[in-house]
Structures are given as structure tokens and as C-alpha cells.
Specification:
single chain; 476 residues; alpha/beta; Aldehyde Dehydrogenase, Chain A, domain 1; Aldehyde Dehydrogenase, Chain A, domain 2; 2 domains; seven-stranded mixed sheet; six-stranded mixed sheet; 15 helices; globular; Aldehyde_DH_dom; Aldehyde dehydrogenase family protein; Ald_DH_N
Length: 476
Amino acid sequence: MYEVQQLIDGVWGAGGAGGELVVHDPADGTPVSRAPVATAAEVAHAVAAAGKAAPGWAATPAADRAEALHRAADALEAAADELAAVQTAEMGRPLESARAGVVAGVGTLRQYAEIGPLRGGRTLAGGVDAIDLMVPQPRGVVAVLTPWNDPVAVACGLLGAALVSGNAVVHKPSERTPATGWLLARLLDTALPPGVLTLLTGGAETGATLADQQVDVVAHVGATATGRSIAAACARTGAKALLENGGSDPLIVDGDVDPEWAAGQAALGAFANSGQLCVAVERIYVHAQVAGAFVAALTRRADALRMGPGRDPGTELGPLVDRRLRDHVHGQVQAAVADGARIETGGRIPDGPGSFYPATVLTGCTDEMAVLREETFGPVAPVVTVDSFDEALSRASRSPYGLAATVLTGSMTHAQRACRDLPVGTVKINAVFGGAPGGAAQPRRGSGQGFGYGPELLDELTAMKVVHLEAPPPGW
């Protein structure tokens, strides 16, 4: 079992008077990790200590901060197998996928190490006897609350950008993956001065207490309801809220595409990481011309996925993170069936231990069903048949979320319309995943606010100061 420690004011093992939480392997229910629960007093002390460490880190030359990030990336790279194994143990992700998340995190740290020192301000055209500058400065203390579904890659993005910008960071990982957060923090801490990074563990109450502190930024990736609570807390304290929250991403399958290929894209988008991705495909609008062949192909692909523990090399579909999430997913499927949807495959809770749920394909779905209207976060592919691309575009746009969308089409006209008209932060044409490094999107509606990735994240984590500089009058 992993014995997790907190890091407060440069001291490992600090705090923990609030009790403990235990995480169980979602594949078999065995205990995996034990973590302390930070009290409100410990959270307040941690934030105060980070505030004391912040000025020294802000005054550190940008190149030195970048070099520290490179050392941290080296440490993560060397421990990639261990980081992948703890992810798999805590949340069930297949090992190969978990390791890919670590590799992505290492790459993100290196990206911010390279571009961090290059981000600067600008000069303004003022009087000839004066100098006018816009100077970016660290915001101070950044509270970072990260999710369990991709705990290394997401944390590396927010932590790397905040640290290279000169901020001190208080990190609270999800209570479902505390050991992953702890191991990541231990590796990062080897490259940083004492006090610059803080690690707090605990549940939702700990996160809420942290968001209520006098920090300068609260960066959160997770559920929409939590993000809205954080935004309300930031309105009270004056902190900047940086939120990447839930999504219900649509996939549009146009009438001119190969249905076999489209089914492969849909299966990848809906079933990767057992559907536990913010940008998973959660709604499929398929043109009637290809709907029959598409559904048949998608059903075959769902049936072919090998379900099992993430630690087994042959596993393609691991368990959901816990039975509470499985009950939520199954409840949405059952409600859809009660309202007229048809199960093509899956849709049943398997016997045995763990929190497994099969890849599920639903047809006959309507926009009023919770499985389309809300975020599911499981391996469920609800399919809606439409008569035209216009109908697909219109129905895909009806959502309280605005994270991402994918369109499979051979029509450049349809692709351009989708890029222009879909009310989301990211539009992908003919690929459910992928994209160039450094892409930065602003989620919309219930999916959050602010840049969560790319070079623009550095701007979110710094504040611009205008400086007007004149020489003293003659004779002084």
C-alpha cells in the first residue's frame, strides 16, 4: 500500500490531523493507498507558507526556473513506469495508456521550460523622454486542483506553467488518486527550492477550503458543479478562477464518410480510458445514409474490446474509477432505455469484483435523455440518426457544455461551417484526438473559462503591470 504524505512549508509528512482516506483498486477492491486529510488549519498554514516562499521564487531568474523544470522532467521520465503503475492501481487505467499520460506530462514540462523564459511584455509608444513598458509578473500563490482521470498529464500542465511563471503552488490532487499526486510532487520537489511546491490531500471539503483561501489564482480541472463552486469562492476572495470543467462532446458523422472508418473514430473517442476523459465522445449524430452500417461497425468494435484489470497487458477497457461512478453511468443507460432507447451491446453490470462496465452502444436516443444532455463519463456511445448535416450541426450545438466537438466529413464546406458555428473551444475535423503541441482553447458555457493549455496559459498565470519611467528633472 502507498502511504501518502503531505508537503507543507518544505516539510514532508506535515499535517494530517483530519484523519485519513483509503483508495481501493477499482479492479478488485483491494486497498491501494492511504492519505491524510488536511484540516482547515493545515490548509491555511500551507497557503501562508507558500505566500512566504513566493517572492523568492518570483525573483529567481527565468532561465533558472526553466532549468528546474527540465530537472523535474528528467526525474519524471526516469520514474515513468512507477508513475504509470500507481495510476493504474488507483483508477484502473490500462498501463500502456497510463504511461502515455506520463510521457505527455514530461513533454508538457519541457514545453513550458522552453517557452517560459521567452514570454515577455512589450514597450509602448509614449513621450520621447520617457520609457513605457508592460511587464508580466507572477501572480503569487496558485492553488491547483487536479482530477483523477489523467492525473499526471493534467497536473504537469498546470504545475509546470505556474512554476515556470514564478508562482508558488499549492497542489491538491483528487482524493481518488492521492498516491499519484504524492509521487508526482516528490519528483517535482527534488528540483525546486523548499516551500515553492506544497501538496495537500483530502476530499471535497479540503478542496473547498483551499479555494476559499486568500490565494491569487485557483486553477481547477474537474466537474462543472465543483468549478462553479470554485468560481463563487473566487468571487468572494478576489482570486482569479481558471476552470476546465465537464463536457458532453458531440461527434458528427456526415453522409459521405466510410462508416467502418467512422466507427473506429467513434469507438476511440467514446471508449478510450473507459470513457473517462473530459473530451470523450458522448453524443453521436450520424447521417441516415450511413447510420445502419455505422452502428453495426461500432457495435462490433465495442464487442471486441478486451475488458479487464489495467495491469494486465491485454486489457483495452479497464474498470471505471469506482462503483459510485459505475452506478451513475448505468443509471443514465437505464433511464435512456426506459425512455425508448435500444441497447445494441453492453448496458449490463458484469458479475464479479471491481467496477467494470462494458462498452455500450445505444440507438434511438433523443436530445431530452440525460445520456445526451449530461456528462456521462463512462464507455457509452449514444447514437442519434439525423437526416442532414444541418440537423446534426443544430442538435450538436444544443448543450449546456462547450468543451470540444469532432466532425467526420469529406466536405470542405461542411468542415468550415462546423469550425465556425459549433459553440465549443476545440473543433476537430476527421480525427477525434490529436493536434499540434501548444494548442490552447477557451472552453465555453458550463465547460469552464480561461486558457487551460498552451503558451496562453502562461498569460493566465501572470499579471501585467504598466510602468511609466521618466528621468528626474534637470538639476536634481
